[in-house]
Amino acid sequence: MKLGSPSNSAIFGLSITLFYMLLITPWYHFDKKRLYKPTLAKIYGCVLILIKLFLTLLLFKDFEIHETFPGDTIIYYSLITNLVVLILVTITKSVFTHGHKWVSLFKTLQQLDSNLNTTKNLCCIFFVKQTIFIVLFAFGMYGWLTSAPTPYMKFLLSIPMTDFYYEFLIVSVYEILVQVFREKYKEINDQLLNIQAENKFYSEVRNLKKRWRVLGQSVQTLNRIFGYQILLVILHCGLELVAGFYGFYILFRHDASRSINHFFLSNIWSLTHVMYVLFTIILRVDAAVQESSKFATLCFVVREHVGNEAKAEALVKLAVYADHFTPRFSVSGYFDISKSIIFDVAGNVANYFIVCLQLNWQLNKN
Known about the structure:
Elements: H1 16-21, E1 28-29, E2 34-35, H2 38-60, H3 65-68, H4 73-97, H5 99-115, H6 123-147, H7 152-158, H8 161-193, H9 201-253, H10 260-303, H11 309-324, H12 340-365
Antiparallel strand pairs: 1-2
Helix pairs in contact: 2-4, 4-8, 4-9, 5-9, 6-10, 8-9, 8-10, 9-10, 9-11, 9-12, 10-11
Keywords: Cell membrane, Membrane, Receptor, Transducer, Transmembrane, Transmembrane helix
Family: Belongs to the insect chemoreceptor superfamily. Gustatory receptor (GR) family.
Membrane topology: Multi-pass membrane protein
């Protein structure tokens, strides 16, 4: 599937092929700036959805799952359901409902690349992270297999290995796009600092206004594309943390027969994976917001070095204009992505962990 040269798909580089295969992003022709064979993509998306639903149904009909995850079946089913919905929502948005928004986002980033510096290829960093993820995941699987009370094959089928990897790829795509926005805001800030040396001052101010507005609108498009996916990822992080802490409780209090070292280390991997996903989203978004928030301040800094009163007034108006298009990375309008999410997740995890302990105590009592 050749949808564009590497230079035209500089946002993702060679990794775009993997995202196409799993329909995390729609098939987009970077040269022609339009979707590539959308009808075929929809048929392929239907096939992937049917396969996923069929495999999930088989998993849910396995009544021996209680033997594999004794005492925490509700948490297990919640995790599986959350990941399945995450995959279905991503595929649906890519090929059925949000394809035009993806086209708008890609076109905007390509247009900005022609006016600003070309987007850095983050492909190498992605593949390094992917390799680390696969190695650590294999280590975690080994720990789970050696401590599982059921046969290896049944346990492997009960673990959503591909779902974890799919979630990792979704977060990677979101991370790359947020990094691209951060770079664009940084380049606009650099242009603003050099504007006083420009001969065409007023035309540059108009160009900065336009680019700032386009970036702000593109952030809103990104929110619409990834809003529910990020919400489901955050929910999964909370569920996984509850499951991890509850696993430690079961391990040290009720299940001494398991291979403690392997199970302990595999549980540590799960918690590490969750923290990586959560902090990747929050810290990348925070860095982009911090970079964009410098623009209004820089307008007044540059204003102090401009002798012309009319130019100084133009910079003040530019700062006021920028406030109307300040980027807000939100989760489908429910809440903004910020560092406060860490404390919200921690509070909810503590509450649900206590509920799990109370339910476990009631079951043992009965």
